[in-house]
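Help: read this over?
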Amino acid sequence: HYPGLGAVTDNTDFTADGILDTTTTLDGTEIKAFDTTIDQANPAMVMMALATYQAIDPNNPAVFSSIIIDGHLRGDLGYDGVVISDSMSAAAVSAYDTTQLGVKLVEAGGDLVCIGDGAQAVGDDDDGLVRHEHVERPVDLVLVVGVQARGRLVQQHDGSVLDERSRDGDA
């Protein structure tokens, strides 16, 4: 949950109240551990928090913040892996138009939307996201992560994903 939830008093899954961090800054100790880990480990994915970080971007939660994603994570840190959202069915983002959740993530520099419990991140007509200028990069990144998994995940006809090893009886 980048850039950290240590200064957030409530759980973003269940409430939109108490999810404002008033102390974390881009050069503060709260974020430094995350930044060091990302720099040293270069993880395939980084999950964005749904909290708002007042001292960084008071107008957007981290998941929709181009200051945090494009500016700091990708720009300052040089991170080029997949940026994924936390669950877009969480209460923290319940005030947003559900058809714009995926669009807002991509516009901020994110790549992959985590959807749970019937959330709808792009609407019935997802042409707005498909035609969006930032979409080509996320598709390429997700394909790279799939290749890095050595082709062990297979997408089924119904869209679900199956571990190829379990299909072959090896898992």
